[in-house]
Structure formats: C-alpha cells, structure tokens
Amino acid sequence: MKVLFSKNNFAGPISGADEIVVAYASELKQAGHDASVLLVQPPSKRDPLVARLRTANVQFDTLASTAFSTSLATARRVAIRAMRTFTPVSSLILSNSRKVVFNLLQQYHNACCAYLKRTRPDVVHVLTPDPGAVMLVRAAHETNIPVVYQEVGIPFHPPGFEEVYERFLTVLPLCTGVAALSPRLAEELSRVAPHVPSAQVLPLISHDHNGTRTSRQERQRVTFGFAARLEHLKGPVRLLNAFAIAHQTNSQIELKIAGEGSQRNELINESRRLGVEEKCRLVGVYMSLKHRDEFMSSIDAFVLPSLTEGTPNVIIEAMAQAKPIIATAIGGVPDLITEEVGILVPPGDNAELADAMVRLAGDAQLRRTMGVAARRRYEQLFTPEAVLPLLVSFYEHALQVHANGHASGNGHGQLSASLHPWVTR
After folding, report:
1. pTM of this structure
2. Fewer CB within 10 Å, N- or C-terminus of the chain?
3. Which domains can be identified in the chain, with CATH numbers?
4. Of 324, 367, 362, 320, nearest to 342 (Cα)?
5. What gap in Å lies between CA 34 and CA 37, rounded to an integer?
C-alpha cells in the first residue's frame, strides 16, 4: 500500500504530531508498505525527524521554498511582538495573522495537486488541523485520492485555537476516514463534528528500541522527570512549585526537566526563589531516540502536569521503559493511566501533585509495581505489533469507502476486527 503522510510543517523538538508521522511512516516502511511524507513548509536542514525518516528509507518532500518558510517565521515574530506591544487588540492581531498565513498556504493548492497526480498515493493521511491541512485535504479530494484525517489532540484546543478548528471543519466531510488517538478523544471528535460520525480509534505507535526496561529501585534519591515544551499549557512552573512543596516532606527527591520554551528563564528564576535550584536540572531537548532513552533511563518516575492534552507520546515513551506516571486527568490521558499504572491528579492542583510525588518517592514497591504495569500496558496498546494491523485496516476501509463513492459524512462502519483492546467490535 502506498501511503502519503501530509502536514503543514514539523513543529520542532518534542512535537507529538510530528513523532506520530515519523513512527507511522517508519513502521509501515519496515513492514513492506510504500510510506512517504509531504510537508508544505521545509524543515530546518538539521531536523532530527527528517534524519530518522532518511534512516528508515522513507521518501520525504516539501512544496514550499525555504525562503517562504523564512518569511512566515519573520511575520510570526513580528505578530508576536505586536501582540505584546498592543495587548488590548492582541486577539485581533492573532486572528488577522492566522488568516494571512492560511491564505498564503492556499496558494500551494495547484502544486499539491500536481504532486499528488505525479506520485499517485493510495491514500493521503493528514494529521492536525494546522494551517495547511485545509489545502491538503482539498487537493487530495480534487485529485480523487482518498484522504483520511487523524485528530491528535482535543478538538478546539488549546484555548484560542477555536477559529482554526472551525475553518478545518469545513473540509472534514471530504475525508473518507476520521480517527483519534484514544476512545475518549474519538468520542469528543464525534461530538463536536456530528456531521462526520463514527470517528475511529487509531493509537499512536511508540517503538522501544532497547527492549524492556526496569525501574531503578535501590537508590535513596528519587528522580522525577518531565519532558515537553516549556510552555504554560504543559505546566512546568506548576510542576516546579509542586516539587518544592514535596521537597519539604522528602528532601531526597530530584527533578529533571527536558525541553525548551518561553518559560525556561522563569523556571530558572523560580527554582532559585523556591530554594530548590540544586535539586532541579534543566537538560535541554533530547534530539535523538538514544538521548530520549537515556533521559528516561535516568529517572524513577515521570510527571506531566499539563492543562490540556490529547494522548501524550511522552507518557507512552515513559511507560515503555517501565516508569510509573503522574499526570493530570485531561483529554485522553485517563485512557492511558489506570490506577495500576500511575496517579491522576486534577489539572492546576499543586497540592495534589505534590502529594502524588511524595507518595511515589516514599514507596519503592509501589514504583516497581506501577512500572511493571506501565510496561505491560504499553505492550498491549502501543507497540508496532499492536497498532500496525489496525493502521492498515483503517486505510483499507478508507479505500473501500472511497471506491463505493461515499465520504465519511455518509456513514462509514467500523474497522475490521482487531485484537486491540481500544477497538470496539
């Protein structure tokens, strides 16, 4: 089968949607399918995801020039400065700048159609309702190639993203298949887009390249790990404050933070103010699978206190290495984390988050038991062996729907029978 994965751009390190594209394409290629990736905007020359695609022999192409991406990046920086300078009208500036970007990307419609006519994929797989997604879906539809859409987050999130999603909903009925990453997210997608019923569950693939990991139990010091963009919605400052509270009860705990973002300096200053600077390490972004695995191996438990999430790749990566999880009960996270695997806390509740950290830090047996259960759940839900049959079935079903002349809005049925626990027979 010839599958083309399409996105507007690669968003940078620790991007869940980008990781899904690379994992799906690489695993399909290894299984003998013809998988390729098309971006509207070219990535940086040293993008680690592109390097991984090349290592997996996955064809990679772009539509726009580097100069186009540079111009957009410059315009984005100007818009951000304007919003900071003219705060009362920042929402208007943001809305107008999004419309400009959207209109610019529509100019690549003809180029995209020409590319699709030349390469003739069996199916086009679009992820995220980003600014280029509308153009990509329309181009696939116009060239009579079945196109499927996969929602990788919570529809209409994060806050302020509503107008982007409203625009994307206008082309969603053109898709011959629609999917989300977990049961809760599929239900939410079907709720907000009732004209496109029966969103399917299509989990992400997380490949453990180093085999089964075991938790580190013999150390007195317990290290909690966090890996995500250092932005407000991911909750790094809240985590730091909860860590400081927990540290008052257990001075043997440490915090290791991977990622970059606008809150980096705030984290440094806050760690000094809270008196935990020596116990909190910011290690930057891991740029390869090896570095990711080294980070996960160096921690005893993983924490993700986000305010909004879909199905976070990074939680599954921690589960693959037998780490107990503390996370907020939002989006698709409760589909991942049962009470056997970890501890769910309310979003924004620093006291509950601190209590969970104290509980895990003080109970090595609990960390061990949860870690084993996390590894078992990873193997059940997210390995290539668990997901690839479902992915191929999803495409085959889309091809059948397309051949019968139906779009998703005309009511497609369930996927073929699967052993995956998240798929309803």
Report:
1. 0.85
2. C
3. 2-64+108-205+386-410 (3.40.50.2000), 222-381 (3.40.50.2000)
4. 324
5. 10
